[in-house]
Write the structure tokens for this entry.
Amino acid sequence: MTNVDDSLVVHTPGDREIVLSRLFEAPAQLVFAAFTRPELLTRWYGARGWRLTECDVDLRIGGRWRFVSQGPEGAQMVQAGVYRQIEPPHRLACTELFDDQSYPGETLVSHEFTELAGRTTVTTTLLYATAKGRDTVLRYPMTRGVGQSYTRLADLLRSTTTIRGEQP
């Protein structure tokens, strides 16, 4: 039996939204880098048993991103989108669409990075095209997967104190 990380908080404030938040023991600059740099993303992104095998990031407004994840028994998941807002290290927003998506329309994903005393809360708002799409996602083990992925991120952040190429 897999446990969901208790530190991930999930809210559904509207009929098309899911809001996820978690506190990380790291400065916002490092957490933002972990969300935007392929060499860091490949070390944490994905639920237990999943890993990124392709990670393309064109970090600019209008730039595209594309992640290919490999999972148990050869399962594959491909998701991609376009960056809409980039304000390091405070905000990142993009669209998201899965190759094998089971609900209609693009999702708008907004990440807020709020730092206080060297600790950063990541608040992610997923705004679905339809209420039915949001309800479909809530039936999936998405919160378990995000919780596991964020646990992997927390482990990475504990072992990574600086960002190569930038001042700590």
